[in-house]
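Anyone else keep sequences and structure tokens together like this?

Example one:
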Amino acid sequence: MRTTRLSDGLISPAIGLGCAELRTDDLTGDRQAHAVVSRALDLGVTMLDTADVYGPELGRNEELVGRVIAHRRDDVVLTTKFGLRFRPDGSLWLDSTADWARQACRESLRRLGVDHIDLYYLHRRNPAVPIEETVSAMADLVRRGDVRHIGLSEVSSETLRAAHTVHPVAAVQIEYSLFTRFAEQELLATCRELGVGIVAYRPLGRGILTGALTAASDLRAADGRRQSPRFQESNLDRNLALAAHVRAVARKIPCTPAQLALAWLLARGSDVVPLAGMTRLEHVEENSKAADLTIPAELLAELDHLADGVAGDRYTPEQMALLDS
């Protein structure tokens, strides 16, 4: 797979692998995760993204990723995150203090079984903590050799600028897809002005852009997407109609809808890296081919205004309050 320069010194594959949904609950899950990640690395999908809060229990996903890459560490651009914490009652709070940045990094290094993290993100920022305090601590981690590059996730342009004055920010991770384009209003321009790469999570619109979801009945009762306004009642009907348009465009190329969604993001600029969640080997094979796909200009234009018709916020009001700080 071709590579891209996200920022000075940070080279990434054109497409990364989001590891959050890899199973961590039994030996079968371990074997499946090992097969998926190994095949991804073979195909050049070498950026692996995890976080300390991913998994059924704190740190479980990091531990899984650590086991899977134990014999291929040099092949991997390893990224993880800190800043989201859970109280004993399961409620969420944000901790972006300097002390937690240092402690969380130590614990992530231990769980991952590595001596350094290639890209370390602040997962969410607590607005009560000056971003300069957090980034100063992250810069100390770089100086210690525990971290190679630092990143931020779901922040405003103002926060990014303030952070960048303390230490260069290598990448901002943001939700970005055919259906989610708010980053184009200001943040992308700021990233490009500062030389900061863009890592696009949920590039497949939480699965709606793959074509696999065609009706509300396709969502299991426990599916977390049911909590998102975009996947509720009339909003979902409207969004599924837009997804059908994506499938129609994909047939013209021809390619799969997922490949089209990833290739569309790659066409937004060489500094944009889609981070696709892949849990099955066939997904790895399919999605990796998007890096070589070219979408004709007239079809890009046909897709360009789809996001204007998307119905519903991407998160609940409580979750939306944690964003763009």
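And example two:
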Amino acid sequence: MKPVGIFQHTEVGAPGSIPGLLAELGVPARVLRIVDGEAVPQDPQASSGLVFMGGYMAVHDDLPWIAQELALIRRAVALGIPVIGHCLGSQLLATALGAEVTRAERSEIGWSRIGVAPGALAQEWFGQPAGEQLLTFQWHGDTFGIPPGAERIAGSAHCPNQAFVADGRHLAIQSHLEMTPALVALSVERNGAQMERQEAAGNPACSPRAEVLDDLDARTAEMRATLKRLYERWIQGLRA
């Protein structure tokens, strides 16, 4: 099987638990370090699937690699090559599929729960009943719309669109289920001032900084189990 291509845009936006999960599932992977200037490939057919990670930038920013990744996603979708996006990556996928990405009503930062949407598709992907509340880690100020023909499979109290599936094979996840204890700690180290400002402003979608590093092993293990279920479903569509 060709490797899955994982696109990393920032240091904090590392793939976390994803390479290990793919290895457990018998799927080779290669990290493309856009953060270090590695070029975005034009042809998606070198990969069996494409994974796009997060970043502080927005899909509308005038950065050459954003336009290049959007073009790559559109080519992959046209060829039936599965795409999965995390945070910024989910917004790139939504944009490529014709949906709008806008500022969210409020930023979501830190620990929260997302709810499995009603319907067979959401239960198929999450392996959980409708309404089940799943732990996740958030750090975003933008939100995506649902592309034409796609189906929302998760939402939250502060951000209704948390995940969608398109064409039965492409998955967008607004939050950071991929986080490891080290990545959570790095996020707080680098961006903790933003968390403090949101907390001081009374943002109900922001975790208190004093509590965000608690129980990291248990919390990230719970997210990893959720993400593994999603990837088990996603890899069913990979190209050989």
